[in-house]
Specification:
Layout lengths: L2 E2 H8 L2 E3 L5 E2 L1 E2 L9 E4 L16 E4 L11 E3 L3 H12 L8 E2 L4 E2 L4 E2 L4 E2 L4 E2 L4 E2 L4 E2 L4 E2 L4 E2 L4 E2 L4 E2 L4 E2 L4 E2 L4 E4 L4 E4 L2 E4 L6 E3 L4 E2 L4 E3 L6 E3 L4 E2 L4 E2 L4 E2 L4 E2 L4 E2 L4 E2 L4 E2 L4 E2 L4 E2 L3 E3 L4 E2 L7 E3 L8 H11 L2 H19 L1
Parallel strand pairs: 4-5, 5-6, 6-7, 8-11, 9-12, 10-13, 11-14, 12-15, 13-16, 14-17, 15-18, 16-19, 17-20, 18-21, 19-24, 20-25, 21-26, 24-27, 25-28, 26-29, 27-30, 28-31, 29-32, 30-33, 31-34, 32-35, 33-36, 34-37, 35-38, 37-39
Antiparallel strand pairs: 1-3, 2-7, 22-23
């Protein structure tokens, strides 16, 4: 869907410099852009690519505008503007409404007339699928599942019994929502399964990345609030509660009954232990291990950054000596203090 530069600028609250009537049909990188494409500069490391870029227009911040002589949309946050423009220019072609002949839909399911049900989809008894929802091929919609209007399940998604998805959910391939939580009781060395009786409730505008799993609650529900964005390969355990507009990157694992606040950013590979509470506005950097509740907003990190192997081995040997070194330092401090007195 092509738009003029002026139309795009208006949609993102930007200022046009140059020919606002020029049509743009797609986005591209500074290095790869050509005629009819728009690019952006959000990271100063790519500034050198401006001189040779063949983009028809660039989204750029006021402070960087002097480095580009061509058509521009000038905005305070080029990356945010790029995200909005890319969404506008790359709108997916919607499937027509209806049910594919190779789908299996229970007669007691409620499918809105404007929804699309793809090939080899299974929709079980009591499921409710809202207006303009798109259920892609190979999905399984369990009993009494509710899927909100304008939601998209791309392909091979499983939504288990009783779970609810709010409006405009975007669920990528391989996602499982409502799998059993890891609930076990030990009976003299033998593990006994604890029934998982809760549901998973997703709010509005939630996105779940490929092969992410969200477990149903043990008794109460697992809750994912409005606007949460989950990346690929994330494990959300039973009874976790994630506050609105929190974003969590790939390969993070969240153990049961942990509460994560609003507007948090959890980077990739983070491990979060169970029964913790993380307040609003927390950022946890990549590969961190969260072992205690976080009670104040801010940026938190753990772990040891990569270094040369020979340095790592030397430092590891010293790690094992830290306790002894601390005791020796304390004794030396006592001796110095005694001599000073």
């Amino acid at each position: 869907m092509s738009r003029t530069i002026a139309e795009l600028a208006e949609l993102v609250g930007g200022t046009v410099r140059g020919d606002g009537s020029l049509c743009i049909d797609s986005v591209a990188t500074l290095a790869g852009a050509g005629e009819g494409q728009i690019s952006f500069l959000a990271n100063p490391r790519y500034r050198k690519q401006l001189d040779s870029s063949r983009a028809s227009a660039v989204i750029i911040a006021p402070a960087e505008a002097r480095n580009w002589d061509g058509n521009a949309i000038i905005v305070a946050d080029p990356y945010l503007a790029y995200a909005k423009i890319a969404t506008i220019l790359s709108e997916r072609t919607r499937h027509p409404s209806g049910i594919h002949p190779h789908a299996s839909v229970n007669s007691a399911a409620e499918i809105h007339s404007s929804a699309y049900i793809g090939s080899h989809v299974v929709v079980e008894e009591g499921a409710v699928i809202g207006a303009d929802a798109c259920i892609g091929p190979g999905c399984v919609i369990g009993r009494h599942v509710e899927i909100g209007a304008d939601s998209t399940l791309v392909a091979n998604v499983t939504i288990n019994e009783g779970c609810q998805l709010g409006e405009r959910a975007l669920i990528h391939p391989g996602v499982v929502i409502g799998s059993d939580g890891f609930g076990l009781a030990n009976d003299e060395g033998r593990w006994v399964k604890v029934p998982q009786l809760g549901r998973v409730i997703l709010g509005k505008d939630v996105e779940v990345g490929a092969n992410t799993t969200i477990d149903r609650g043990a008794i109460e529900d697992t809750i994912i609030e409005d606007g949460v964005k989950l990346d690929n390969l994330i494990q959300v355990a039973h009874n976790v509660h994630i506050g609105e507009n929190t974003a969590i990157a790939a390969c993070t694992g969240i153990a049961g009954s942990t509460r994560i606040g609003k507007n948090c950013a959890i980077a990739g590979g983070v491990g979060i232990l169970g029964h913790l509470e993380i307040v609003d506005g927390v950022t946890v950097t990549a590969m961190s291990l969260v072992t205690r509740s976080i009670k104040r907003p801010g940026v938190y990190s753990s772990g040891t950054p990569l270094e040369e192997n020979r340095h790592w081995h030397r430092n590891y040997a010293r790690f094992k000596q830290l306790d002894d070194m601390a005791r020796r330092i304390k004794e030396l401090e006592k001796i110095v203090a005694a001599k000073g007195s």
